[in-house]
Amino acid sequence: MEEVALDKIPEVDANGNPQLVAVDQGQYFPFSVDPETGTVDAPGQDVKLLNMLARWTKMMPPKAPFPPPPHIVQTTLSKNVQMAKDSGNASYRTKDWPSAIKHYTMGIAMATTRPLWEASELTSDELTTLLANRSAAFNGAEAYVEALCDADAVVKIRKPWSKGHFRKGQALTGLKRYEEARAAYMLGQQFEPDNEEFAKAIAALPKA
User: Fold this and answer.
1) Which of 13, 22, 64, 111 has the highest CB neighbour count under 10 A?
2) Confidence of residue 2 (pLDDT cuts 50, 70, 90)
3) pLDDT number for residue 65
C-alpha cells in the first residue's frame, strides 16, 4: 500500500471513530479503533491477528492482570462445553446418533475458542474427549470415514490416551481395514495393558 500523506488523513473514519496514524518503515498509515469491540480497522493492512488478540482480551475477567496468569479459566465456557458433552452422551445412550453428533460438534466448536493464555492441557482434554465421543457416535451411525478422522485427531493431540487408539480401531474395523485396525488396537493396548476391551476387539477381528 502506498504511503498516505498526513494532511490527507481525515480526523474520523466512516463510523465516526477517531482516525489515528501508524508508522511502518518511515511510511504513515491511517487506522481507527472501535471503542465497543476494541478491534482495529486499517484499510489495506492485515490486522486479523491483532483483532483476534483484541477479542480475547475483552474476554478476560475484570481487573485481570496483563499478561494474564495461566490459571485463569473461563468457567462459563467450561460449563457450556460440559453441557454440550452431557447432552451428547444422553443422545448417545439412546442411540440418537445425529443428535449426539450435533451436541459433540457444538462442544468442539466452543472448546476451540479458548484464548491462547489458558492452559493448553484444558483445551487438549476437552477436545480429545469430545472428538473421541463424536467418533463413537459416527461409528454408531456407520459413518466410518468421519469416525476415523475424529479418532486420528485424538491420537495426534493425545497419543498416550488409549481411547483414541480404540476409536481408531473401531473406525478401521467398520471400513474393513482389519490389519490397520489390529495395529491400532495393539498400539492402544500398550498404553493400557489391563483394559480387556482391547483383547476382545482384537479377538473379534477376522483372521488374515
Assistant:
1) 111
2) very low
3) 55
CA dihedral 82, 120, 133, 81 (to 10 degrees): 20
Question: In whole angstroms, what is the distance from residue 191 CA to residue 90 CA?
Answer: 28
Question: Which cell goes with 107?
Answer: 462442544
| Predicted TM-score of the model (pTM) | 0.67
What is the C-alpha to C-alpha distance for residues 11 and 143, in angstroms, rounded to an integer?
A: 57
**What is d(CA 151, CA 158) in angstroms, rounded to the nearest whole number?**
10
Specify the 3-state DSSP secondary structure of 92. helix
pLDDT (tens digit per residue) in 119-167: 778 889 999 999 999 999 999 999 999 999 999 999 999 999 999 999 9
**Rounded to an integer, what distance in angstroms lies between the CA atom of residue 192 and that of residue 208?**
25
CATH T-level assignment (fold) for domain 75-204: 1.25.40
In degrees and rounded to multiples of 5, residue 145 shows phi and psi of -65, -45
- Rounded to the nearest angstrom, the gap between the alpha carbon of residue 14 and the centroid of all alpha carbons in its chain is 35
Residues of the chain with CATH 1.25.40.10: 75-204
Coil, strand or helix at 131 = helix
Q: How much is the mean pLDDT over the chain?
A: 83
